[in-house]
Specification:
Helices cover 63% and strands 0% of the residues. With 70 residues, the chain is mainly α. The chain has one domain (12-66): Arc Repressor Mutant, subunit A, CATH 1.10.10. It starts with 11 loop residues before the first helix and ends with a helix.
C-alpha cells in the first residue's frame, strides 16, 4: 500500500509533544499536561522519531530546531 507523500510531516499533536520535549518535559509531565495516557505519549514519540528518522529525544529536538520543523 503506498504511503502518503506527506508521511514525514508531523501532525499538530506530534508538534505539540515535541515542543513540550524541547521545554524539558518528561513523558509523564507531557501526559499530565495534555491529559492523555502515558502510553499515548510513547506512541506519539515513536511516530515522531520515525518521521524525523532519529532514535532519541535529543536527536529529535536537534533536527526539529535546526531543520526548521518548529
Amino acid at each position: 500500500m503506498p504511503q502518503p507523500a506527506d508521511d514525514h510531516s508531523l501532525s499538530a499533536r506530534e508538534t505539540e509533544l515535541l515542543q513540550l520535549l524541547i521545554r524539558g518535559y518528561s513523558y509523564k509531565m507531557i501526559a499530565d499536561e495534555l491529559q492523555i495516557a502515558l502510553e499515548t505519549v510513547r506512541t506519539h514519540i515513536k511516530r515522531i522519531y520515525r518521521k524525523l528518522q532519529v532514535n532519541s529525544a535529543t536527536e529529535a529536538i536537534y533536527k526539529a530546531t535546526r531543520g526548521g520543523s518548529l
